[in-house]
Structures are given as C-alpha cells and as structure tokens.
Amino acid sequence: MKWLGLLYLFLSVSLQFGGVSSKNQGHEDSAATRTIKKELGDPPEVHCSRERSKAAWKIIQEYLMPFVEKEQYQISRTCKLHPHNDLYRDQEEHKIQVDLNEWQCGYCKKRFYDDIFLDKHFDNRHYNLLNVSHTRCLADVCGALHCDLEMDSVPHKKTKCNPAAAARNRHLCEGLADSCFPVKQGPAASRLHEFFLRQFCDAHTCTGRQKPFSQGRRKKRASISYLVISILTLALLFLFYSYIYMYSRGVKRGTQELKRVTPIGRKKKPS
Ligand SMILES: [Zn+2]
C-alpha cells in the first residue's frame, strides 16, 4: 500500500509539473507571436474574401481559360480577371500538396493536414506577404462569375431571384467582357467577347431560361483514363461471358451425350 501511495504521489507531482511546463510553453509561445507581430506590425484588415477569391479563380480556370488559350489570346493586366488582380495568388502558389492529407507551406516548409489549416497559417504568419496597397481582389468579380454556384457543394433551394441584383451582376459582367476582351482588338478578342457574354452574362436574369456556363468547361484529363479503364473492363467482361458461354455449351453437349447413353443403360437393366 505504501508503494501505491508513493507511486500516486509521484504521478500527481509529475503531472502538475507537466501542466505547469506546458502552460509556460503556451505563455512563451504567445509572447513570441506577440514580438513577431510587433516586428511586423498588426495584421492589416483585408477586405477580400479568400474563399470567394478561390471560387472565382476556379471558375476562371475551368470555364474561361481553356477558351482563351484556344484563341491564343493574352488577357491584359487592366482586366480584373488577370491573375495579377488576385490578392491571394502568391500564397496559393506557395501551397505544396505533399500527399492526399498533407499540405506544406512554401514559405516556411511547415506541414498541415488540410488546406484549410494552411490558409489559416497564411493569415496568421504570412499576412505581411499580402500586398494590400493595390485595390485588387478577385472576389470582386464573383457576382458576375456565379461564384455561389461553385461554393455550394449542395445546391440549396431556389431563393427568390432579385431583379435589381441580377441587373447589377449583368452590368458588372458586361463590363468585364468589354474591358477584358475589347472588340476593337481584333477577331479573337471579338469572339471571346461574344463567348463571355454567353458563358457568364446571359444567365443574369430572373427568367431562369439561361443557365450559366452554357458554353461548356475544361475537359478533364481524367476522362481519357476513365475511357481506357471502361474499355478494358468491357473487354474483360466480354471475355468472361464468352468463356462462361463456351463452358456451358460444353457442359450441355456433355449432358446430351450422357442422355444419349443412359436410355441404352436403362434398357439394359430390366433384361
Ligand atoms: Zn509558412
């Protein structure tokens, strides 16, 4: 019993020490961050949604750039869709996906389980890298590009369409078409101008007749491998069934031969 008492005493003391030391560590940590913050200055208020910027970037990459590249057209820096206008572009390009559940910060090499934690890390540790002096934010074009569609993984119930908001978004959308693809610049710009109106702007109405992204999207590279896999699977299935067919035919022929044999056998029995 004395032994147990001593063990308990030892454990409780060591636990207390552990608790104190971890508390101290937390204190030191916060002190350290404070000094860093002092050195860097307080994080500037960023009035640009990272999430919406990401959604806009994805839409541009998927529903616009394949067509722009096809026309070999160069978007100018004055166009709000130019990568230069994305405040978070540099940070996004410093995301390294090591594994399915492993992300690395390209600035300081720290690793995270999820992309979301890496975003938080950028906000807390590398906010000084955001150049907020220019008024640039890709999320600003979200109204025109239907970002809500990209952000909702589950399409919510239809909310009542607001005609004023739809008109505003349409105006923003047409402005983008004019500034990014000026018709005067030539046939390629002219074609892309027309494409942009059909792809993004037509759907900004309350009639519900026009769907956004009506002109299609980037064809996924994965589709080729899917095609190969499905063809292989079909070929294997064909081989499998033809084998079964041949086998069953073989068995049938066998039983027929047996049937032919058995009546003679039966006839022989009574005699
Ligand atoms: Zn970092």
UniProtKB/TrEMBL annotation:
Keywords: Membrane, Signal, Transmembrane, Transmembrane helix
InterPro entries tied to this protein: Znf_C2H2_type
Entry's transmembrane regions: 224-244
Domain of life: Eukaryota
Domain C2H2-type as annotated: residue spans: 105-126
First and last residue of the signal peptide: 1-22
Matching PROSITE patterns: ZINC_FINGER_C2H2_1 (PS00028)
Protein name, UniProt field: C2H2-type domain-containing protein
Top-level taxonomy: Eukaryota, Viridiplantae, Streptophyta, Embryophyta, Tracheophyta
